């Protein structure tokens, strides 16, 4: 039963991610247009329609408000064969894919959570907050892939949530050393990126990657796991980029979003990092 609930919640929140990311971008575009004094009123949407909380779901092409039958995750897209019911323009496969990935991550997180999510109050709180973080991570991945940007309006709330989670864990366990571990974790995950950003004057990585590094350090609360994220994200990035370079679709001058690689590595480490670090330490001890 828990898997069914997680699947449904994950699909619905994946649908929310799609709508949220599009609205966030449109709000930014609208602000820039107003700043330029654009007079193309026909291209503007009423800010109320773009409200994250109050706006109704709409087609990204014709802006027609969607009916309830158009909003069933995955199934609506399949039944309409990937097209808008009203203007018949194609709706990107991104929509069902994000919904399915979010639901899949919810289930995988439950299966491989380091402690049973229902074994204690602390584990339950950490697991629920993790699901919230996952939704934010999905929004960051989509936004970075589409527009090469990691918006502060997503990152800052996630940082605030992570700080609250660290505080909860310290108070609940009475383990003050967790503060030191988290500080080192943040210093490694965010500090290294900040140094790269400062040395390159923002040419090698963006400021959003630096803030994402600080967020991941807070979330992991473990310096070893922060190192592991940096290592894995580099490997994942290499695996993705090298084939593109061999096929000449990617060059040294191509802009490639690094945020998704960091997030994928962070998800892997959050679920399996403790086991990986323990295994690596045992290998080092055997060699020593």
Give me the number of helical elements: 9
Helical amount: 55-70%
Element string (H = helix, E = strand): HHHHHHHHH
Secondary-structure content class: mainly alpha
Beta-strand percentage range: under 5%
**Overall structural domain count:** 2
Mean pLDDT: 88
Question: Which residues form runs of ≥5 with pLDDT under 50?
Answer: 38-42
Distance between the ends: 48 Å
| Total strand segments | 0
The outline comes out as globular
Question: The biggest beta sheet, please?
Answer: none
Taking all Cα atoms into account, the compactness measure Rg is: 21 Å
Walk me through this protein's architecture.
- The chain has nine helices and no strands.
- With 288 residues, the chain is mainly α.
- The chain is 69% helix and 0% strand.
- α6 packs parallel to α8 (223-246).
- The N and C termini lie far apart (48 Å).
- The chain folds into two domains: 2-79, no CATH class; 113-287, no CATH class.
Keyword list:
globular, mainly alpha
Compact summary:
With 288 residues, the chain is mostly helical.
Topology:
Elements: H1 2-35, H2 75-79, H3 94-112, H4 121-147, H5 152-173, H6 177-200, H7 207-220, H8 223-246, H9 259-287
Helix pairs in contact: 1-3, 1-4, 3-4, 4-5, 4-9, 5-7, 6-7, 6-8, 7-9, 8-9
